[in-house]
């Protein structure tokens, strides 16, 4: 994977999580070069790489939060930020998806049961009126 090459050459990629939505993680990606310079935009990285005569290029960087790569920093109000690796974040996202599916299933089941109770009630009322 070309995106991993930058990390293998000493670059750091951090995603500062601002939320999680239906489309995945929301936040801001920041790359830090091996010399410690931070970048929030790909155009700035490309200029930096050209000046450094690096063998890395645009294809080695992505500012998409949806790509599971690097470290993730989750801000928790009133507490120290929590740092997640790719692996721990993948597990956390999987757990959230399972919980969401379970809640959605429970809601659908509740609607289904309610519908059938109402249908049975309507059927009994109809029988009484005949």
Automatic annotation (TrEMBL):
Key words, A-Z: Membrane, Transmembrane, Transmembrane helix
All residue ranges annotated as the MBD domain in the record: 1-68
PROSITE patterns: MBD (PS50982)
Keyword Transmembrane helix among UniProt keywords: yes
Gene3D superfamilies membership: Methyl-cpg-binding Protein 2, Chain A
One GO cellular component term: nucleus
Subcellular location: Nucleus
Transmembrane stretches, start-end: 105-125
PANTHER family, sorted: TOUTATIS, ISOFORM E, TRANSCRIPTION INTERMEDIARY FACTOR
This protein's name: MBD domain-containing protein
